[in-house]
Amino acid sequence: MKKIHPFTTILLVCSCLNVYSQQTGYKFQQTSLPLEERLEDLLNRLTLEEKVKLCYGNVTDNTADRFNSGGIARLNIKQIEMLDGPVGVRNFNDNQKTTALPSTLLLSCTWDINSARRYGEVMASEMLSLGKHVVFGPGMNLMRSPLCGRNFEYMGEDPFLTGSMAANYINGIQSMGVAACAKHYLANEIDNLRHYTSSNMDERTMHEIYLLPFEMAIKEGKVWVIMTANSLFNGIHVTENKTVLQNILRDEFNYDGVILTDWRAAYNTINTANAGTDMTTGFCAYVFGEDRLLNAVKNGEISEQLINAKVKNILRLYFRTGVMNEDNCLVGSINTDEHKREARKLATEGMVLLKNTANLLPINPEKIKNILVTGPGVTVVPSGTGSSKVISEISVTPLQGLKSAFKNCNINYVSYGSSKINLLLSNAKSNDIVLFFALGGQCGESRDLKNIELPDNQATIINKLSDNNKKVVVITLSGSVIAMDSWSNKVGAILLCCYAGQSTGDAIADVLSGKVNPGGKLSYTIANKLEDYACHYLGLWPQKAHAENIVPILPKAGSERKAIYAYDCDYKEGVFMGYRWFDQKGIEPLFPFGYGLSYTSFLIEKSGIDIISNKTDKTKVQVKIKISNTGTREGSEVIQLYIGETNCSVPRPPKELKGFQKVFLNTGEKKEITIPLDFRSFAFWSNEKNNWELEPGKYTIYVGNSSRNIAFEESIILK
Ligand code: BGC
């Protein structure tokens, strides 16, 4: 019996085939037997050639086909089929358009783990409907610099927020029998030069910051697939890096899923196999393919035991997903009305109201009749370029969204351009309000930004418009941070929308009209200037090349490819990244991490702090918080809990996010919530002891609605 998920409104038969042939014995077909037993049994039926064949993707020039791998024809087991995420399913068949969800950067601004789960469920449903098994998402690299072109595919600057959102996104996908794939492991915070760049850091920085999201994806999300980055880590390509693959993922975290490579991440067969990589994919599939891995086993350079371990991981994935799991395979659906509604709802949930002088928003059509609409973002639905680009059936521009939401107002659209300045200014004077849709520089794969300035003179024009109308609202559409310092104090309101997916226009109109009360909070710091971010302050971006003759694009043919180590990206700021750095240095951000306004107001109060257990690794603390909606409409607030330790033997950030919860409240409603803390909430990674350590002493718990707006703080002593 196939199960039907609530998300499914159109019944499409999942293409999970009956994969079992008659002559192959019965044990691995018995779904009632424990997974590991079936696995072992199937492994024993495979020839060496068949085992090795499972360890690489199709070596082919056909793009769509490159996303498939393995399969055992003799046993009638089909290939495992994968597709890109992470911001919706990227399908290659134009006749089956998928849902372009808001960017995961926007998702992270919801600070809502339930939103992350729903996001994952939409993707899983579409994957099932396409008969696919693994979706390449979530993207879990951190926004160390606003210049990384793929920030829109990631989840902001904080490892705990990223890990929490990602774990729930993964649960959403995998609860439906589709595999999620956490990428790009590890510390791939730059894109253009990723193939040749080594991210260098100490153990503590790795464990506390860049590894933590992946640890949470494994321990809380139970993720089934991890993709290794194209880059190097501490001087060794991740794909060949035994320390971060075998020692950390397998030995430290007991990870039992598949480790596969990014599209160009592998070079050397023996090193890649020995480090712990299970499967080579894409343009580097040949590294385990073309008989290279097979011959290495035959020559005795690699043991069959090592191959068995890889094949077990891969078969485990086959059993976990629809490849072998027909009976439990859910029915999916694609691009349904329900998915469209979700894309729009999710987008509104993540939008962040940064400024709202004199309650300019929401726009009241009783009072505001004439709306000037301009800016380069008005007639587009911006998204990132590259592997995560989703082609959707619908694409609602801001202009379209406004026209359908404000039927009783005059929407006066003036197309954007410096040559139009006089027309724009005279219109600014004659209209009641100005909506300026600012568009950041194009973000995408291999498209790191050169700066964070708004292109095409937008800052100047926003300023001039503000000189002519006090009610200028700037709506920002971008894949990363954009500079706002030169105009933010002049405009009346700012709504941050990141890349908001296929329903961009409708979702923005929902918030501007007040149909939806914004509840998003920044998942990253917006600084006054680029140089305020740690890696720019310290001159660590871009890196200096230390090798010559860098081949800009890697040739595809195996014989021509060689690993190059050309750049060092030293993470010298250590754990002081994002708001941890701004707090430590006393740098005032323009809008701090965690910040975002609402159309209503809230009161956050302490209810109590209970130390339930005070014994190092058994530490358990509960923080009880009261929250009330003191305003005039329903809305949501994000309670954020940070911890700081001042007398530690190593320098620690003044405060770090260790818990959060989004709370929905009607007018006048009050709730009490509890945020649990444990050993890890207080511990730091000790480089000396090579382990987590909790030092006895005084810890301060800060609770507020942004990293810089603390409602109350209280110190506790841990023994
Ligand atoms: C990207 C990955 C992506 C893969 C397949 C690579 O270039 O870095 O994120 O999943 O291509 O499209």
Characterize the structure shown.
The structure is a single chain. Helix 1 crosses helix 11, helix 5 runs parallel beside helix 7 and helix 14 runs parallel beside helix 15. This protein starts with a strand and ends with a strand. It is of the alpha/beta class and 719 residues long. Helices cover 25% and strands 21% of the residues. It is built from 19 helices and 27 strands. It has a domain of 117 residues: Immunoglobulin-like, CATH 2.60.40.10. The chain is globular, with a radius of gyration of 26 Å. Strand 4, helix 5 and strand 5 form a beta-alpha-beta unit. The strands form seven sheets. Strands 2-3-4-5-7-10 form a six-stranded mixed beta sheet. Strands 12-17-16-15-13-14 form a six-stranded mixed beta sheet, with helices on both faces. It has a four-stranded mixed beta sheet with strand order 9-8-6-18, with no helix packed on it. About 2% of the residues have low confidence. Beta-D-glucopyranose (BGC) binds next to loops.
Main β sheet profile? 6 strands, mixed
CATH architecture of the domain at 602-718, please?
Answer: Sandwich
How are the strands of the largest sheet arranged? 2-3-4-5-7-10
Low-confidence stretches: 8-22
The chain-level mean pLDDT equals 94
Q: End-to-end distance, in Å?
A: 55 Å
Query: How many DSSP helices?
Result: 19
Number of strands: 27
Structural class: alpha/beta
Strand fraction equals 15-25%
Determine the CATH superfamily of the domain at 602-718: Immunoglobulins
- Hetero compounds: beta-D-glucopyranose
So what's the overall shape? globular
- Fold-level CATH name of the domain at 602-718: Immunoglobulin-like
Computed Rg: 26 Å
What would CATH call the class of the domain at 602-718? Mainly Beta
Helix content: 25-40%
